[in-house]
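Marked as duplicate of an earlier ticket. Keeping the data here for the record.
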Amino acid sequence: MKTYVTTPIYYPNDVPHIGTAYPTVAADVIARWSRLGGRETFFLTGTDEHGKKIENAALNRGLTPQQLVDELSTAFVSSFRELDVAYDRFIRTTDEDHVRLVQEILLRCRERGDIYKGVYEGLYCVECEAYYSAEDLENGCCSLHIKPVELLREDSYYFRLSNYREWLLQYYEEHPNFILPQSRHKEVVRFVSAGLDDLCISRSSFKWGIPFPFDTDHITYVWFDALLNYITGIGFLDQPTQFEEFWPEVTHIIGKDILRFHGVIWPAILKSAGIPPPKRIFAHGFWMINGHKFSKSLGNSILPNYLISRYGLDPLRYYLFRECPFGEDGNFSEANLVRRNNNELAKGLGNLVQRVITMIVKYREGIVPVSGIGEEPELEIEKAADSVVIEVSAALANLALNKALEAVWGYVTRLNIYANTRQPWILAKHEDSASLDTTLAHLAEGLRFLSTLISPFMPASGAAIAVRVGLEDVPQIGDLIWGGSLTGKRVEGGPALFKMLDAPVEYGSELLSFESTQLVEPANISQEMANRM
């Protein structure tokens, strides 16, 4: 079995914020768990580098568009490195193989009769790279960016999206898990049921884009271009065997604001080109501040490096998927991040690790002892370990990242309760060596399981626990069989795994400790924009 997981590709209009990090780290969690399970895994992310906005920004800076995107894309590479994101390819829509791929798909769709020439006139928001109707505007401005729109009229090529309405509805019915969560699936079905207009897929009023292979006066609309990155990245043209192996297992992780592009336009394009639709599209919710989505233009954007420098990387990665269900909106709170770090990481997992290692050093000279035959408390710890592996595997298979962490922290709690019940310090005082050995061995084995279970979410912490119980690497999922694999291993002490953090300053009921920026919204569209496809 293979795993292929993708993020949306991001518009490199400026540095990425935590809203950009959210789906990227989520995909990283899925990819890391897949690799721990021994599955061949491919993880794709990258940047969407064409469009009028880029052309205008480059002109304003006296650069070519290519020079500008070469500069801006490095910010995403750097940010993802800081977030410890282990992708397999960082794709750019200016990559040579992607340009060839887009032109090949245009030819395929044209040969099928799905591309024709016409004229488009409409109100266009450069920031959104999308058209609006007058009813969508507020005082002549795009409601998202609060900037005036332009009236554009140009010759354009169209994709016959309307031809695919019945096929899409049948596909949704036959594949009820194609779009997740289920509420998003129903939303897309309602939208398509109401009818589809053909899609304008070219621009002739500016030049920064991929030229049409059959009419070089036209460049490819950024969304038609960007969606195709998913098959470029896995080698549709140049590595067909790899494509055939991985494509049937693809999961697209996207924001809910671009669902209709992915759930409607994308499968229709693939069908026209003779390529199977993706296996699964998961549309996550947004982190909100003051009831609003993170937005660079609104100045409420939080930069990952700020959060990492203040709170640490693993606490941030943990918080993103512990705080609210993946798929729903959540309210980002630095105070809640601190509380979860202090109560669940520092006092919970961190304290467990510290005292288990300390007791093995103190009572057994740092060597994990041989376990004797356990009693009911030991049997419960063993059964719970097996159960939590199954629970986490099932949760991550369904992208229920918060449920995976709930299961793991249930086991952390069990181990802490077990330690408090058995009281190794009392067993040592009474010189009950057999019971002490069994208790310490079970606690160490529990930590071995935890090193794997937390690793996808907190890679550094998972690796640190593995080292502290005497292992060189985090165990694979297949190695999580309860037994004496740690017997005779020398444990390694160290500083606290997680630091206690000071609470941030709060102003009223809202936190204002984020860095305000003068950046603009990425080229993801809202639900309102999606209505104007």
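See parent ticket for discussion. The two ends are 36 Å apart (CA to CA).
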